[in-house]
Amino acid sequence: MPDFGMLPLTSGPYDWEWEHLWVPTLILAIYLLFAGPLRSRFPGSKPVSPVQFQFFLLGMVFLVIASVSPVETLSGYLLSMHMVQHLVLTMLVAPLMLVGTPGWMLRPILRIPGALQIGQFLTNPVTTFLLFNMILCIWHVPRYYDMALRDPQVHQLEHVMFLLTALLTWWPVYSPLHELPRLSDPLLLVYLFLSSLPPTILGALITFSDNVLYSAYLDAPRMWGMSAHFDQQVGGLIMWIPGALVYFVVLTWIFFRWLNRDEHTQSQDMRPTIY
Fold it and tell me: By the 8 A CB rule, do 173 and 132 touch?
């Protein structure tokens, strides 16, 4: 049975968790190695564009913010800050990593026997939607949420699962591999709208709960004069509004892209044919 005693807050609320820096450092080092000295070993490889590299680097910056900066330590004191941490991981780090990764870096994985079939299943929009939202809901069950706060290893497992499933849920939107393609724009509009619903519903449930759902925060020292219940309401609103807003921003961009593409196609079709 897990120990549900006092929170093991061994760090101050504004400390940096420098021991976590090795994760983004290792990821970036592998990326630079593949993009530089080892690029010639990847069939069909091309130089990584500056824009692509900037997207990936920005993803690593946000990963440092989520896992190394005081956002990490404050998440042990405030549910609202924990929600910020989760949003940064799932709504910023994951899509930026996908957009910044060229397909040729990942294509060798598909040559492993059975990898393509597994990839097709894992990146199917139904699978990605169900996996991400199932993991999201399970980790917000009070028992598991408190367990993650009280055990650093469980906390890291939670974040790994969030990041991996977030990479999958953004795959139909930003896939870098034509073998595991993106959805068409009309289907993406439906996919993104449906994806916005679970965080909206879960955020609303947390916001309007009459009780403090996560007992770990009752044990934690209060920060910034916020009661545990008010902090919970703020955390629920952060999941509810910014969480859904990210999906709607991407949805709006895709809608206008689709509209412009459709108008361009129609204008091309209306051009007179010259024989």
Answer: no
Dihedral angle computed from the Cα positions of residues 31, 88, 183 and 114, in that order, rounded to the nearest 10 degrees: 50
Give the separation between CA 228 and CA 214, rounded to whole angstroms.
Answer: 9
- Predicted structure pTM score: 0.89
Alpha helices in the chain (DSSP H): 22-35, 50-67, 70-74, 79-87, 94-100, 103-106, 115-122, 125-139, 142-150, 152-174, 185-207, 216-219, 228-269
Instruction: List Cβ neighbours of 172 (8 Å cut-off, separation of 6 or more).
Output: 123, 125, 128, 182, 183, 188, 191
Q: List all residues 6 or more positions away from 72 whose beta carbon is below 8 Å from its beta carbon.
A: 17, 20, 66, 85
| Nearest residue to 254 (alpha-carbon basis) of 198, 170, 179 | 170
DSSP 76-120: TT-HHHHHHHHHIIIIIIHHHHHHHS-HHHHGGGGGSTTHHHHHH
For the chain, what is the radius of gyration of the CA atoms? 21
CA count, 13 A, side-chain hemisphere, 196: 17
Q: What is the mean pLDDT of the chain?
A: 90
What pLDDT, in 10s, does the model give residues 100-135? Answer: 999 999 999 999 999 999 999 999 999 999 999 999
- At residue 268 the predicted structure's pLDDT band, cuts being 50, 70 and 90, is low
The owner of tokens 């079709």 is 269
